[in-house]
Amino acid sequence: MWKCTAAANNCISTCCPLNKPNYQQQNEAVGKAAFFDSKAPALDHIRGLGPKRREALSQQGITSLYDLLDCLPRGYLNARQPQPISTLRTGEACVEGQVVSAPSLQYYAGRSIVRARVRDASGSLSLAWFNQPWMARQVKAGSTLILYGLVQRRGEALTLTNPKMLKERGIIPQYRPLPGLPGKVFAGFITQALALVDPAEAETLPHSFRQWHGLLGRAQAWLQAHQPEDMDQLAAAQRRLGFENLLLYQLAIRLAGPADQAGPRITVAGSFAQEFWGQLPFSPTGAQRDTLNRVLQDLRGPQAMRRLVQGDVGSGKTAVAFGAALAAIRGDYQCALMAPTELLARQHYSSATQLLAPFGITCGLLLGGLRAAQRREALDSIQSGAWQLIIGTHALISKDVVYHKLGLAITDEQHRFGVRQRQTLAERGDDLTPHLLALSATPIPRSLALVLYGDLRVSVMDEMPPGRTPVRTRVVPPQRRDDLYQYIREKAQQGEQSYLVCPLVEDSGDAQEEKTSALSLYRQLRDGPLKGIGMALTWGSQEEAEKNKALEDFYAGRAQVLVSTTVVEVGMDVPNATTMVVEDAEYFGLAQLHQLRGRVGRGSKESWCFLLGEPNERLNILTQTNDGFVIAQKDLELRGPGEFLGTRQHGRALGGFGITDVRLLEETASCLEELLNQPSQRPLYDYLARLARERYADALEQTGLH
């Protein structure tokens, strides 16, 4: 029987029989699989798994054999072939050599360092383990070691820093640490699970479907992902697991969102966009014009619009949203704009009253903290239609809010809302489903956007308004802190303002926790380096009256310096602010640092963002580019989807492989479209839809994407 040897490598030859899929065979396989019991084997046969360890696994969502095997390595140490010491350069490396002499252990400032030296046939190399005093007992003179670590240059010589001692050569999987489970114990569980899995029972994809897309079997992919023989086999395993993961997750998102629904057909004059832009005090960019035109076209259509407008900080998304709101209101409909924080809602309300005042639009603000009488008055204004544009927080989807005639729902900072929340707002209309416009100023890589927003059409605004000066960025070591505060003082004396952002509100009390708190920094600067300079302090859970006063003082220029937590990440627009300082910058994600940087550079003066911390690969990325999409892609690659999105549930749902692979994402998206559009594929589609619901129901519920 002929066999395609290129199947695992995604063969695309036109003469290849695998490029002529046998749909009948495929659907017969699906028919048999329709009775497939997706309940995975329990963990009962894993040795050494007592109640405490079972509970530790359960806390991570691991309750079955398949859950365990889906807990994939976060990375690998490529120790197949150690490098000769004489060829080493800075970066990660594997070496094999003999320990020259007994290691030394020294203490300084409460910290330890173990030093040793290894030699191979080509030369010798110094080793250093920081804060690992036990290594002095584990490293023996004369022993031969396989070591993997980071090669750094210290003076004229190279040093292998904090190397791991490996028992053998190979591709060594590295797992994320799990609370209550030592790494060796977890790796042992994986080995047992691989021996227990039944390939036929574990398989989820029909044979012909796997052939068509060049995919390994599921059990074989698990084996090669956890115990790879070589890099090609590992790549094939990653492809199989990533393909299934991305295909089913995108399908789950589509199933969670509504199907095409009838929406209000809003009549929009052909000259509307030109009239709207002509009334504003600035000229729109080409991206703004194009995006608004697409939105207006959606509003004219018979189906409810579902569009995401994604753009970097300052790209002008809000103006596009106001243009859409005006079009809906002129069509005799109401518009609701939902923001994640009161600060951002108030900022939008202020901007709307200014920009839309020439058009005679009435705006209202609905917040959760309104007094009873204020809330009753607001609800009456919404129900009667007196308020044409209603701006607020989650209060907009409260059960007691009755809209007069809601035609357009807008959500800002879309990454903070899920399918359920945006759909709840979109369901507040009467007979027809309101149009939905989602905005996101947090750049999300195209691959991740396709997965998270599979129920939305995506428009990208990648053009910045003319005249904006790029913010310059620099990483400042902690020992230069005093110089930085002197710079801020000089800027304040010149009439310019500064933000100082801290990761904590107050000191944690943890001896190992050395993050800077906003309260302690404010007091230190007020009584020290910035004494006599107007200062304000704010954080997320601060009393509303105190928060409003701090922000008003900063907006009005009475305070030259605002010390805060990340509450200022969105909603702050102070053109006179020219300096952003982020304390302990290494504790923040790159995308969040980029958002904070966007708070300055909003005027005509040169602006700076200073990142306090030791220079490293992550922070240096921000000094090299102001492109939020480039930064977001790097952030995703470095931290993975879970940490990037800030939720463990997202990371669990998206899995370990595939999400950073744009080509694989596009391939699975194309596959899903084919399944949707070809009637002959309906049995396969229905089967995969069942799998998607079963696999991701809990994860989608936890993340608010259901």
Could you describe the 3D structure shown?
- The protein is an alpha/beta fold.
- Among the domains are: 81-168, Beta Barrel (OB fold (Dihydrolipoamide Acetyltransferase, E2P)); 272-461, P-loop containing nucleotide triphosphate hydrolases (Rossmann fold, 3-Layer(aba) Sandwich); 472-625, 3-Layer(aba) Sandwich (Rossmann fold).
- It is built from 25 helices and 21 strands.
- The strands form 4 sheets. Strands 11-12-10-13-14-9-15 form a 7-stranded parallel beta sheet, with helices on both faces.
- Strand 18 (535-538), helix 19 (544-556) and strand 19 form a beta-alpha-beta unit.
- Helix 9 packs across helix 25 and helix 23 (648-654) runs antiparallel to helix 25 (682-703).
- The radius of gyration is 29 Å and the shape is globular.
- Mean pLDDT is 83; it is low at 1-29, 31-37, 508-513, 646-653 and 702-706.
